[in-house]
Structures are given as structure tokens and as C-alpha cells.
Amino acid sequence: MSKENIVQLNNQYIKDEHQKIRYEEAENSKRHRLIGVVMLFMILLFILPTFNLVESYRSIQSNKKEIAKLNKKYKVLSKKTSKEQDLAKSLQDETYIEKYARAKYYLSKDGETIYLVPSLLPK
Fold first, then answer.
1. I need a surface site. Which of 10, 27, 102, 118 has the fewest CB within 10 A?
2. What pLDDT, on a 0 to 100 scale, did the predictor assign at position 121?
3. How far apart are CA 24 and CA 17, in angstroms?
4. Which residues cross the membrane (predicted)?
């Protein structure tokens, strides 16, 4: 069979069938376009909350780091405060004040010689 012998019928039935096929293709095209628009809308709908979620996560992580730094600083300052409070309590005692002044400022009474011993110095 050669192609020269093939003849296409061009009657009303064939024309109607071709028109049905074109109509179905147009409907499918419209349906696919609608589905594409809906999918694009859904993608945009999920992108914005995801961006906000990631931004919130970064903020929480930076806050956790800052809290850790502040806790370390708090511990250092609380130790320093307790040392200062201990010193303030000790400075209420007259004998300690005398020892402190002699050791820190090298004060002495008339006729005294001071010899420094590092292990005996008050802090």
C-alpha cells in the first residue's frame, strides 16, 4: 500500500469529530491553565509562612546565643558581687580595716617596719 492510494473522507461526520477533538483540546487547555494558576497560588500561599518561620527560627537561635552569653556574664558578676559583699562585711571589722590598709596602701604606725608576705595579704 502506497500513500498515494489513501483518500480521506471529508463528510459531515468527520468534520464533527474533528470539531469535537478541537473543543476537547481547548477545554483541556483551559483546565490545565486553571490548575496552573491554582498551583501557583498554593506555592505563594506556602512560601510566605515558610519565610516567616525561617526568620523566626533564626531570631530564636540568636536569642538563645544571647541568653547563654548573658548567663555567663551573670555568673561572673554574681561572683564579683559576692566578693564585694564579703569585703564590705569584712570592712566593718576594725582589725580587718587596719590589716587591709597596711597591706594594700603600705600604711604603718610610727616606728614600724613592714615586711610583705604575699600569702598573708588580704584580697
1. 118
2. 64
3. 11
4. 34-54
Residue owning grid cell 562585711: 89
Mean pLDDT (the chain) is 87
CA distances from 2 to 5, 9, 33, 119 (A): 6, 17, 42, 117
Rounded CA-CA distance 120/98 in Å is: 14
Measure the CA–CA gap between 33 and 40, rounded to whole angstroms: 11
The sign of the dihedral angle between the CA atoms of 30, 32, 34, 40 is negative
Q: What is the pLDDT of residues 36-73, one digit of tens each?
A: 999 999 999 999 889 999 999 999 999 999 999 999 99
In sign, the C-alpha dihedral spanning 62, 68, 73, 77 is positive
CA 25, CA 23: separation in Å to the nearest integer? 5
Q: Please answer whether residues 108 and 102 qualify as being in contact, where contact means their C-beta atoms are separated by less than 8 angstroms.
A: yes
Contact call for residues 83 and 101 (beta carbons, < 8 A): no
Of 83, 79, 60, 59, nearest in space to 71 by CA: 79
Percentage, residues of the chain above pLDDT 90? 53
